[in-house]
Amino acid sequence: MQHRTIAEVMTHHVVTARPDSTFKQIAQLLSDNDVTAVPVVDDAGCPVGVVSEADLLRKAASVPDPEGRSPGRRLGLDERARAGAETAEAMMTAPAVTARPGWNVAETARTMYRHNVKRLPVVDETGKLVGIVSRSDLLRPFLRSDGAISDEIYHDVLRETLGVPSGSVRVDVREGVVTLTGRVEERAAIPVIEHLCRSVDGVVAVHQSIGYTYADIGAGVEPPRVHGTQGGAHEASPHRR
Fold first, then answer.
1. What span, in angstroms and rounded, lies between the C-alpha atoms of 3 and 144?
2. What residues have CB less than 8 Å from 135, skipping those under 6 apart?
3. How do the domains of the chain map onto residue ranges?
């Protein structure tokens, strides 16, 4: 199974600012390059913070209405200091939360969510900036075609990884939603199949209705029963030694 790394989806050419970059210089950088944020890097090329449109707009939000109808947004002490900042070093969000090139999409998305950020500078083992990844970059794997997803599940997950006999499990993929039907020997294989299918790049959801022959190898004889799961119902035949 192949999973895209951040190195494959990130932007490699990164527009950056320096700690002494002025407010207007940063505003010009954002406008000229059609970006919403820039990493701030030191002399070694290591990110020390990030300046975004939100940081620049903080200044605009603090300015009273020219006609005196509004006193401007009420800011806390820290926000007032940053609203009055004139350089990147004073207005940036620091320290910079970063990612590594070898991270997968899920790991990177969790980091963004945990830190409530929209983008992550990507650094190498020395801490030097090598790229930047945004929320939209993380959505690229979901642009994979249904056919490519289906082929990977058939060949990489079912055959190569799990050794499921050809034709035992049928795979239908529509709009990234995977539906699995068929039958396997052991019940324990079903959650493994589901888990691996969910980890395939581009999969939106997995639904399954897979039957099984044996509940557990080595267990006692069981009467026939129907086992319900979120993905569907499984018919089980009596266990045989």
1. 12
2. 112, 118, 119
3. 6-139, 144-236
Q: Report the percentage of the chain scoring pLDDT > 70.
A: 78
Is 140 in contact with 176 (CB distance < 8 Å)?
no
| Number of CB atoms found within 10 A of residue 194's CB | 19
CB 162 within 8 A of CB 189: yes
What separation in angstroms does the CA of 153 have from each of 141, 142, 148, 163? Answer: 15, 15, 9, 12
Is the pTM higher than 0.85? The answer reads no
Place of tokens 């989806």: 9
CATH of domain 144-236: 3.30.300
The phi-psi region of residue 15 (left if phi > 0; otherwise alpha if psi is between -120 and 50; otherwise beta) is: beta
Which pLDDT tens digit goes with each residue over 204-230? 999 999 999 988 655 444 444 434 444
- The answer to whether residues 178 and 205 touch, using CB atoms and an 8 Å cutoff, is yes
Four-residue CA torsion sign, 103, 96, 51, 25: negative
Burial class (CB in 10 A: 0-12, 13-18, 19+), 90: middle
CA-nearest of 3, 49, 8, 39 to 137 is: 8
Whether residue 71 is preceded by a cis peptide bond, meaning omega within 30 degrees of 0, is: no
Say which CATH topology domain 6-139 has.
CBS-domain (3.10.580)
Cβ atoms 15, 137 nearer than 8 A: no
CA distance 10 to 4: 11
How far apart CA 170 and CA 158 sit, in angstroms, is 10
